[in-house]
Amino acid sequence: MSTSAPPTGAEHVQQVAPVAAGAPEVAVVGAGIVGLSTAYALLERGVEVRVYEHGEPGNGQSGGVSRIFRHAHDDPRLVAAARASRAAYREWGERLGVEMVSPDGAVAIGPAVDDHLPLLQDAGVAARRLDADELARRVPLLTGFDGPAMCDEEGGSIRTTATVAALSAALGDRVVRDEVLAVRPLGGGPAGQRVEVRSGGRTDTYRRVVVCAGRGTPALARTLGLSLPVTQAAHVRLTFAVRGEAPGTLATLQDSSGVFGETGVYAAAAPGNASYGVGLSQTTPARDDASMPVPGGLDELATRARDYVARALPGLDPDPVDVRHCWVTTLPWSDDAMAVWEADGVLLPVGHNLYKQAPGLGRRLAAAADGEGLEDWLRPEARLGLPG
């Protein structure tokens, strides 16, 4: 495993391109959070971009009203990457006039605390243990718990809707509604490497292409002769209304304790703290063609999430007010693994739980697309996500 780590600072160019778009040099396929972040980071560098999205931006694997920002990972390199991403979220939010991450912190309970807290503190993250009283103040919806608990002070709920809207607005008409059918390297020429993108309504060539197409990335990779080791699955996340008045502080929650019947639970607040999105880390399998071998798998996961809420979060009404189903794409060596494949001017990032890493990853993808080269710690052979 590579021991190199990403810088923790936010190295980037301050310039942001004007609203009027010129001829695009780079194409980004997919307007989820990673694609939008990559495109915006290219504009920071003064590189014109076109983003292809056949649906609504942010409505695929990036969908929903909230996600968790956390620094905690098994791999110290991902902790460092999350620090850079948190700095980018803060900077972009200030620049675009939106709160991208709540200030309420990220709370974790259960045995994973003992594994993650030393890594966070060694990396300079403001994280500390919580006693039962402070835990109750941070997550007032939770029933009494006196086991291991910690708070990542700079974690919080990612304001997904506001973030996607702000980045989409900054990109303007650089985002085109069209489905990409094929990406084809054309080789070098007098002007250097060119890559063709064929979509439903056009054919264009670019200096570089970044494919951020979620579960569609492996199919486009195959046209480049790449076989990505991606496992497909589906996931469900339910949103529950808070009983009574919304709390002033509502941290995100990760529960690895098993005390309430589940060992992999996460929850994040919607803006205003009047509702809480809750999901299990478990998924139901899916085939490459998007069919599900267990038709009732999503319903089973939803039932388990409702049962968990009834046991662990009495501050929530146990009848969900919203549901979000989405695809999950994971690499074999870790649920948090991410890697970037590269072939003939095309970059293909793959991973799961990427929302928290998106701004930092976007900046690094933009740097690679702008000719600086892909950093070694992002390549598949680095096995990013393995415990340090």
TrEMBL record:
It is an enzyme of class 1 (oxidoreductase). InterPro entries: FAD-dep_OxRdtase (IPR006076), FAD/NAD-bd_sf (IPR036188), MTOX (IPR045170). Keywords: FAD, Flavoprotein, Oxidoreductase. It holds the Pfam family DAO. Gene3D superfamilies: D-Amino Acid Oxidase, subunit A, domain 2 (3.30.9.10), FAD/NAD(P)-binding domain (3.50.50.60). The keyword Oxidoreductase applies. Its cofactor is FAD. Its EC number is 1.5.3.1. The keyword Flavoprotein applies. GO terms for molecular function: flavin adenine dinucleotide binding; sarcosine oxidase activity. Residues 26-367 form the FAD dependent oxidoreductase domain. This is Sarcosine oxidase. It comes from Nocardioides marinisabuli.
